[in-house]
Specification:
By secondary structure, this protein is α/β, with parallel strands linked by helices. The protein folds into 3 domains: 208 residues; 90 residues, Translation factors (Elongation Factor Tu (Ef-tu), domain 3, Beta Barrel), CATH 2.40.30.10; 155 residues, Rossmann fold (3-Layer(aba) Sandwich). The protein is built from 20 helices and 14 strands. The protein has a 6-stranded antiparallel β-sheet. Helix 2 runs parallel beside helix 14 and helix 7 packs antiparallel against helix 10. The chain is elongated.
């Protein structure tokens, strides 16, 4: 049971603990800010029945400031890739936290949505209270112009109100388009609406500049609730009308000095004497401090990425594989990448704005500068991209020589960026499970091992690949055969354990080709028996830590995640890693 707890903590437990910590931090910040403003507004605003709504709006605003500040950091992909690949983050556990950047981004987004609802509800109450509870004694504190003003004017005719309404609409579009159903059915909608974040932040900068909430600047000269003799005497003094006509300026002049006040009155602890009227000033927009740093960092990174990717790559070959898979090989000056990383492709002839990520299946090395990606044609963007690359779409395979580069459209590559699969070579034993096209991140690992495996920590690799049709295995059948033959020649046949599963078939099938005999012997019909597979791996690797890497459907991912958290009698611990399609 102790081992099960350690496995749970290393995999799912760390995520749950972090979410609990983040929720507690936001709740604590909300409560702390609420109490702070509740004490500071207790006289001027609470006296008008305005304080509760203002305290809730300010407390929720502090939580929004924190999350709007941090939600951009997980999207700084260059920074994350640098931290993952540098020696600054030497701990494997710390590097695994970087893999949760997407989870942290989603968590901040959900927190923004929840506290935005609370913030909007509080301001709706504030607009009604400012209209009904107009303060005639301290006019500068009023957001309304007069008592009984239509609250809708405060919402639609002021800068804070109008920008807030537009921000709510933008946030609603971003949140609804970020759901799993929208991302899968129409990724374009998600991509375009998510880029409205820049509009959201610009409106946020304007929203906080309204200065609705004010604070007193002369607390020492005029403590809240104090007694002002000049003001009291002027209010109670009745001047004859005839005298007022002869001396019109008499009533407007203040007394030259404060009249003497009886000593017992001064010593009364419930009343203090003030020397001047209260002065109020709008709060400086603290939101600028919160979001200016991350926003500038993100903008600088985007500028760097634009400069880095402004030169198109040279496409060396395009190969059409079975089952609607396209392979693109290319070269680019000074391009370096590690196995497991991904790049973002942008083709202006396909779409002027859209860019899509693809995992590298071949990384450049010291001996060759070529790198490549495999992409499955499943949407409008990939269909148009395939039609532009292939001159004759009815041909199964087309490899064009480099002197025909004029036929290819311009293609820009941004990256590379880090992913969890970079750690697959840093374990002594790794289990890599792929489902269909999810084999792409492991293809770059296999290509790297083909060039040389002795320089890495990895000493045993379990490679499981599940496909629905037999033709899909031909995507990387040559690569698997070459790696198998190389390891046999080096007397290390146990270095890699290849298992291919054909989940749907009408009978016994084989990969076509005499050179694939080594793979035909490892081809199994049906689905893997995951529990037996994990038990067998744990038995052969007693008291070791095994990295589990999965790229495929969520059903397989959940099974592997559960098995990684379960205990075994061999002292073997599994650390789970995952990359999903969406």
């Amino acid at each position: 049971m102790a081992l099960s707890w350690r496995s749970w903590l290393a995999n799912e437990g760390s995520k749950h603990l972090f979410l609990f910590f983040w929720l507690s931090l936001n709740v604590w910040l909300f409560g702390k800010t609420f109490l702070l403003y509740n004490q500071g507004l207790q006289y001027y605003y609470l006296h008008q029945m305005l304080g509760l709504g203002l305290c809730i709006s300010r407390a929720s605003a502090s939580v929004l400031n924190l999350n709007c500040c941090l939600v951009l950091l997980p999207m700084c992909r260059v920074l994350l890739a640098f931290l993952r690949g540098s020696q600054k983050v030497a701990s494997k556990k710390t590097r695994r936290l970087l893999d949760k950047s997407k989870t942290f981004h989603v968590t901040c987004g959900v927190t923004i949505c929840i506290f935005s609802v609370l913030h909007v509800a509080a301001h709706l109450v504030n607009a009604l209270n400012f209209s009904e509870n107009y303060n005639e004694e301290f006019v500068t504190l009023n957001a309304a112009n007069y008592r009984g003003e239509d609250p809708r004017k405060l919402l639609f005719a002021t800068v804070p109100g109008l920008t807030g309404v537009i921000m709510v609409l933008v946030l609603f579009l971003m949140c609804t388009a970020s759901t799993y159903a929208i991302r899968v059915s129409n990724y374009d909608i998600f991509w375009y609406t998510h880029n409205l974040f820049f509009v959201f932040y610009m409106l946020l900068m304007l929203h906080v500049s309204g200065g609705v909430l004010k604070y007193q600047t002369n607390l020492e000269e005029h403590p809240p609730g104090c007694f002002n003799p000049n003001k009291t005497l002027r209010q109670n003094l009745t001047v004859p009308k005839a005298f007022e006509e002869l001396f019109p300026d008499y009533t407007t002049e203040p007394f030259p000095e404060d009249p003497p006040v009886p000593e017992p009155f001064v010593q009364n602890s419930f009343m203090r004497v003030c020397s001047e009227e209260p002065k109020f000033q709008s709060h400086f927009p603290e939101t600028w401090f919160w979001i200016s740093g991350p926003l500038c960092l993100y903008c600088v990174e985007r500028l760097y990425r634009y400069i880095r990717s402004n030169k198109p790559v040279t496409i060396t070959s395009v190969i059409s594989h079975p089952s609607n898979v396209l392979e693109v090989r290319m070269v680019k000056d000074d391009f370096e990448a590690r196995p497991g990383q991904y790049v973002i492709l942008h083709c202006p002839r396909v779409s002027a704005l859209e860019s899509h990520p693809f995992t590298l299946t071949m990384c450049p090395t010291d001996t060759k500068a070529t790198f490549g990606v495999h992409l499955k044609v499943v949407g409008d963007w990939t269909e148009r991209f395939r039609d532009l690359l292939l001159l004759h779409s009815n041909q199964d395979t087309e490899i064009l020589p480099i002197f025909q580069q004029r036929r290819y459209p311009k293609l820009y590559v941004d990256g590379p960026f880090g992913s969890p699969f970079e750690e697959s070579l840093n374990y002594e034993v790794s289990l890599c499970v792929a489902g269909g096209i999810g084999v792409t991140p492991f293809a770059s690992v296999l290509n790297t091992l083909l060039d040389g495996w002795k320089c890495y920590k990895l000493r045993r690799l379990y490679f499981i690949w599940v496909c629905r049709d037999i033709e899909s295995f031909r995507w990387f059948a040559d690569l698997l055969c070459m790696l198998h033959n190389k390891l046999w020649q080096e007397n290390r046949p146990d270095y890699i354990n290849i298992q291919l599963y054909l989940s749907q078939t009408d009978g016994i099938q084989k990969i076509i080709g005499e050179k694939y005999q080594a793979l035909n012997s490892r081809l199994l019909i049906g689905r893997p028996r995951w529990k037996l597979l994990f038990d067998d791996i744990a038995k052969c690797n007693r008291r070791k830590t095994i990295g589990v890497f999965c790229c495929g459907p969520n059903k397989i991912s959940k099974i592997l995640h559960k098995l990684s958290n379960s205990s075994n009698s061999y002292g073997t611990r599994f650390e789970y890693n995952k990359e999903s399609f969406s």
